[in-house]
Amino acid sequence: MAPTPHQAKTAKAKLIAGGKQPKARIARYLKTTESQLVEGAKSSLLLKGIRCSDSMSTVLKDMRSVQSPHSKLLTKNNMIVPFDDEGQQSLEFLTTKNDAALFALASHNKKRPNNLVLGRTFDRRILDMVEIGILQYRSLNDFGGLPKKRLGSKPLLQFVGDLWSSDINLKRLQNLLIDFYRGDPVDSLVLSGLDHVMVFTAAETNLGGGQETFPLIHQRTYYMKLKKNPKGGKAPVPYLTPSGPDMDFKVCILFFLSCIMFYALFFATSCTNFNHTSLSKKGTTNSICITRLMENGNETTSGYQS
Q1: Which helix (H) or strand (E) holds 259?
Q2: Which residues of 220-239 are buried (b: 16+ CB within 10 A; e: fewer)?
Q3: Which H, E and C letters describe 146-188, residue by residue?
Q4: C-alpha span between 202 and 210 (Å, rounded)
Q5: Which tens digits make up the pLDDT trace of 206-261?
Q6: What backbone phi and psi angles, to 5 degrees, belong to 174?
Q7: Backbone dihedral region of 255: left (phi > 0), alpha (psi from -120 to 50 degrees) or beta?
Q8: Using an 8 Å Cβ cutoff, are 270 and 36 in contact?
Q9: What values do phi and psi take at 300, rounded to 5?
Q10: Is the dihedral of CA 49, 54, 56, 60 positive or negative?
Q11: Calpha distance 54→262 (Å, rounded)
Q12: Judging by beta carbons within 10 Å of its beta carbon (0-12, 13-18, 19+), is residue 68 exposed, middle or buried?
């Protein structure tokens, strides 16, 4: 079990100050949280909000099946409002406790039906969040009898539509979706290991009947089987079969850090003098500046009204 945030913070402070070494259990955990040259797959935490319908519970179960074994599902409801300060602190605590960098919070109420919040963290702090409203959903059970992906296999991600490159908000959403579904980072792929494709199509639509249009995202998942090319050649031909889960959703609220915060975080990860064991004067100054930026809470919130 991971230590509490207070224990981890105290142990890091003692380690930086050159004081007494932390306990063996905390030291092992701190070593696993240090920066690595080659990062592994990001784990995701799937949890329910204040109220969660059966259909949204099915969405979380399907997300666990797609992301398995790098996902964890919590079955109890949580009194969390993700875009409030207290709700963000609760999410940071739960992701730290379960050692997850990604999270998905499902909820359902009269004002926001079939609501799903996707987000990720950096250095145990909320980095960005996106609230989507699911309009139509087909679960894995709706594709019974059809072949499904193997456990732990990497998907092919395809983003269709000009909005992914022209809309700055959808660019950030695309980056978040890639983080959610990419799995283990690899340098090369074996064709026989590719077995499913996820297609995200962005199109403008008129949801409320007015003159203004809004982006609508269509997510489709296909099982892919590679067969020999009948026309000859070494490259195999993919045959696609719908396998689910499929959903149509709209983007409601986007919570992103400002450009200043992103530059500060990227500078922290790329600076060679910034580490927890030995900090030079330059590294100490950088860490203080980054900490002050984090405390100021520079973020950008935008959304599409429907």
Answers
A1: helix 259-270
A2: bbbbbeeeeeeeeeeeeeee
A3: CCCCCCCCCCEEEEECCHHHHCHHHHHHHHHHHHHHCCCCCCC
A4: 19
A5: 766 666 778 899 999 999 988 888 888 788 888 999 998 999 999 888 887 655 56
A6: -60, -45
A7: beta
A8: no
A9: -125, 125
A10: positive
A11: 37
A12: middle
One DSSP character per residue, 5-59 reads: HHHHHHHHHHHHTT-PPPPHHHHHHHHHHS--SS--PPPEEEEE-SS--HHHHHH
Q: Which two tokens stand for residue 167?
A: 């809309």
Cα 69 from chain centre:
15
pTM over the 0.85 mark: no
Encode the chain (306 residues) as per-residue pLDDT tens digits.
566 767 776 766 665 545 666 677 777 777 776 767 777 788 999 999 999 999 999 999 999 999 988 899 999 999 999 888 899 999 999 998 888 999 999 999 998 899 999 999 887 888 889 999 999 999 999 988 888 888 888 899 999 999 999 988 899 899 999 999 988 888 888 887 888 999 999 998 876 666 677 889 999 999 998 888 888 878 888 899 999 899 999 988 888 765 556 656 655 555 533 443 333 333 333 433 334 444 444 455 555 554
First to last CA, the chain: 43
Residue whose tokens read 């269709």: 160
Q: How many residues does the structure list for the chain? A: 306
Peptide bond into 236 cis (omega under 30): no
3-state secondary structure of 233: coil
CA angle 155, 161, 164 (to 5 degrees): 80
The residue with tokens 């809309």 is: 167
Token digits of residue 9: 């913070």
| Sign of the Cα pseudo-torsion (250, 83, 88, 275, in order) | positive
